User: Fold RNA polymerase sigma-70 factor from Streptomyces blastmyceticus.
Amino acid sequence: MADDVFSEHRPLLFTIAYEMLGSAVDAEDVLQESYLRWSAVDRAAVEHPRAYLVRVVTRQALNHLRAVKARREEYVGAWLPEPIRTGPEVSEDAILAESVSMAMMLVLETLNPTERAVFVLHDVFGYTHGEIAASVGKTEVTVRQIAHRARRHVHARRRRFEPDSAAGREIVRRFLLAASTGEVQELMELLAPDVVQISDGGGKVVAARRPITGRDDVARFVLRVIRTSAATTHVEYATCNGMPAARFVTGGALDWLVAFEIHDGRITGLYGIRNPDKLHRADTVLPLDRGEHQPWKP
Assistant:
């Protein structure tokens, strides 16, 4: 019975933990810790299992987020969320797709742990301030203030976003073809003037340590990377974090993954993950779920 109830809500619980932590590995750890607590509780005394589990996962994720803060600050080079493969149901849910996109996850990183929890639970999953108060150990009035502050912060920094689509995948295909054949003009036309490229090697593999901005510099960087790639490298297309992505496989192993942010027919962001510790979930589609709550509408 405990297994059945937890399994039923697992996609929702994983989604909450992942959006709060930006790491599938850490989210799995949180779910394991939460399951142990759920197994030990007197379930006859739990009137609403899903609400109880959401509260447990939120508290465990908050504890975990505070514990990894120092680790994030000491990270070598740019930090990106651990990419996860997502199914079509994510791309079809615009709010969920945006909430797990690389750009949004980076914005969430700039919030403190409580702000992040409140924003995720309220603006993505639609929980009320009162429900969230019980999860984060604050009063409802305080949660309302935190939600307002977090939303203002996020909205000031959020980037334009379009979920994965056939049109987006075609833009990625044309972009990679132009890069591999040296068609500079085509490459430039597919990049937005303010495009941003971020690489995450974690200090374990070669990767740009700082973001690269602007069409000219990003184009030069991409052409340089393509020229130095191994001849045996081939490209596989996928959907990661609700975004079109390309997997670069060398010798049968995933070497790096690039997720593409697209808006109005141009690439506005490239997020390249090379840190091998972050590529373990890149082969398995992970089910995400926002549950039955209706999302907040601005």
Q: What stands out?
A: Residues 294-298 have pLDDT under 50 and may be disordered. Residues 166-278 form a domain with the Nuclear Transport Factor 2; Chain: A, fold (CATH 3.10.450.50). The two ends are 39 Å apart (CA to CA). Residues 2-21 form the longest helix (20 residues).
